[in-house]
Amino acid sequence: MRTVAGEIPRLSAMRRAVLPLFLVSGAAGLVYEVVWTRAFGVVFGNTVFAVSTVLTAFMLGLASGSWLFGRIADKVAQPLKLYALLELCIGVYAFLFPAILDATDTFYGWFFRAFHPGFYLLSLVRFVVSVILLIIPTSLMGGTLPVLSRLWANQLQNDSPDSRVGQAVGLLYAINTFGAVVGTFVSGYLLLRTIGVSNTICVAASANVFAGAAAFLLSRFARGHDATESLPPNQPVQARKPKKKPHGHKDTSVEASDSAQSA
Fold this sequence. Notes:
The structure is a single chain. This protein has one domain (18-226): Growth Hormone, Chain: A. Helix content is 81%, strand content 0%. It has helices at residues 2-6, 13-44, 47-73, 79-115, 119-159, 165-194, 196-225, 252-262. Helix 2 (13-44) crosses helix 6 and helix 4 runs antiparallel to helix 5 (119-159).
């Protein structure tokens, strides 16, 4: 990862530090996908329905979050602080998710007793409720890539007119995807078998909180150390104020002009 990152021209130390955080974020995201598929398998009583529901919510959330936060990222002055907020919100929601899922079981019981729905109607209600539950964290996950892309694009465009923005964003996506590969393997083959569903969710949520807290500290450091790079795009440069001349100083150019006119 260091070798690849070194090929990006003038990549600051702060942005190098963001790479492992995005790796952790990608791993946590796919841990959630595996664990939520397992949890919703109990809700639906059918693995196929659970997988379809989780994938639908994930793809919808990632697309919605990328579109929404991509627009927001172009307007914020500190993209790294926004990224930190996204990671913290994902972690907090994940910590609350087991309790939220238990509350939906109570709702399903009430709905069945009140309306006596058939299999397909009940499955549809479960699908809608499940997508609503997952659309919030997955939208936040979808917003992380465009926000960090904005951060890196600002740095590279300021450094050189011939900046390789595509290479930088490609590196971000590759790091995040590799983290997803690690998260899928670790959750399926290690965490679920050893610590269970709830504890696996807590591990992933802790990873998001750690990434968010570290990104927030980096943004605080960068604001003082690299403040000029945090300016939003297209901000007009302030005109340079004329230097004040010392008291009693005469403008020789004006005197010369007056003398020429009098002559």
